[in-house]
Amino acid sequence: MAHQPQPYPLNAEAVRTWSSLALAALGRAREDIDAINVYPVADADTGTNLYLTAESADRELADLLAGVTDGTAGASLPEAVRAFAHGALIGARGNSGTILAQLLRGVADVLGDEPAGRDPARLLAQALTRAAEEAYRAVAHPVEGTMLTVATAAARAAEAAAGTVADVAGAAYDGARAALAETPGQLAALGRAGVVDAGGCGLVAVLGALWQALSGREPAPEPVRGRAVPVPSTQEPCAEEHGGPAYEVIYLLEAAETEVDRLRTRLDSLGDSLVVVGGDGLWNVHVHVDDPGAAVEAAVVAGRPYRIRITHFGDERRRARGERSQRAVVAVVQGEGLAGLCGEAGATTVLARPGEPPAVAELADAIREAHAREVVLLPNGAELRVVAAAAAQQARAEGVRVAVIPTRSEVQGLAALAVHDPDGTFDEDVVAMTAAAGATRYGELAVAERQSFTSAGICQAGDVLGLIDGDIAVIGTGLAETAEAVLARMLGSGGELVTLVLGPEAPDALAERLEAYVQHGHLAVDTVTYQGGRGSAPLLIGVE
Question: Residue 225 pLDDT > 70, yes or no?
Fold first, then answer.
C-alpha cells in the first residue's frame, strides 16, 4: 500500500509538503493538461507552464528551508508561504502560470501576516478568498469559464465550510472540481472542443495537493483527463480563437506601482491576454502582442525589465501538434530593444545584463525552449565562447543538433539572422550565417571609467572610446565625433551596408548625423538604424 503522509497543522512543514505534492501532481497531469489547452491560445503548453511555475516555487521554498539549521521546524509559516509565492512569481510561465503565481501571492498576503493565535481554518478560507480576488484584479479582462472561475468557486466553498483546516481544504478542492466540470458551458471555445479549462484543471491538482498535505489522505484520481462531455452553449466564439497576436511576451519588472498602472494601460492597447502580477516593486508581466519590441520598450519606460522571453505562437502550435520545428536560432543580446528585434526575426532571445553574462544552464534552457531538432546559437560576445560551447554540448547530449556561430557582437548576430534560411539544409544555413557574421566588422563606443593605457594611447575618465573588432582604435571627447572617426576607419576598407544600434543615452540627432556622414562620403553604402534599448552600448556599428 502506498505511504500516506501524516496530517499536518497549518505550518511551514505543511507548506513544504503542499509544494512537493503539487509539483508531483502537475508532473503527472502535465501532458493531459497540455492536450486540452484550447484557450486563450491552443498552443498545448498550459500543463507545462503550470509545472515550471510550481517547480520554481518549490525550488525557492527548498532554498529557504535549506538555509534553516533544523529544517522546517526552524522556519515560520509566514516565511514559508512568502518564499513559495515569490518563487512562483519569478518563475511564472505563460498565462496560467502567471495567474497561479498571483493566487499563491494572495495566500501569502493572509498567511504571511503573523497569523499566530488565529483560527487556522478561517485563515485558510480567507487566504483562498484573497487569492481569487487578487487573481481577478491581475487579469486585464477576466473571462468566466477559466481558472479564475475555478479559484472563486474554491474560495466560496472554503468560506462556507466548517471544521478543521483539512475540512476547509477539502471543501475548496471539491468546490473547484465541481466548477471545473461546468467550464465547457461557460466558455464557447471549451464547449466546442469538448474540454474543460486547462488552467482550471491544473488548479484542481494544486488544491488536491493542499488537501492531501493537510489531511494525510490522497485525493481521488485527477477528475478530468482528456476530453470532457461537450455542453451546448449559446455564446459567440471569442476573438482569440481566430487569429490573434503572434507573440507571447513575458518579463520580470522592477517598478513602482504607479508606473505599473500606466504600463497596464499601454500593454492593453498593444494586445490581449494581459496579466500583471506581483507587488512590492517586483512584477511578472505577461501579454500577447504583434509587436514584441513595443511591449518591451513599454517596460523600459516603466522600470527595469529582465528575464525577457519572447515566443512566436507559430512555434508553439507546431509543438502543440507534437512536432519539433526543424531549426531555431537562439541569440544572446544586451538591450531590450535588441531582444525585441531578434524576437521579431524569429530567434529565441536570452537577455544579458551588462557585466552579468548568462550561465551555461540559462543558455541550455533557451536551447530546450526553442523546441527544435536543430539550433543555431549566436553568443554575440567573445567572452561567451566557452559558455556557449558548454551549453551546446549539453543540448547535443539530449539529441539536439547545435551549431555555435562565433559572433562577437550583436551586429554580427543581426547579419547572421538576416541570411538565416530555415528551409535550407542545416550545414548550408550554418555556413551562410557564419560567412555573413564573419564578413561584418563590428565597432562600439564606450565611455572610459578611469584613466588607463590603451592601444590608442592614454585615456582619461569620461573619454569616449571607439573600439573596432574589440580593440580600442580611437579616443575622443564626444559621441558623434568619435563615431565618425570609427566609421571612417571601418569604411576605409570598403563596405556595402552600415548598421547602427543606438543605446538609450545616445542623442536623437546622432543617427541622423551618422547617416548623413555615410551618405556624403560613401554614396553606394546603405545605412540601417535600430534602437538597442536600455542595457545596450551607447553605439554599436556593423559594416558589411
Answer: no
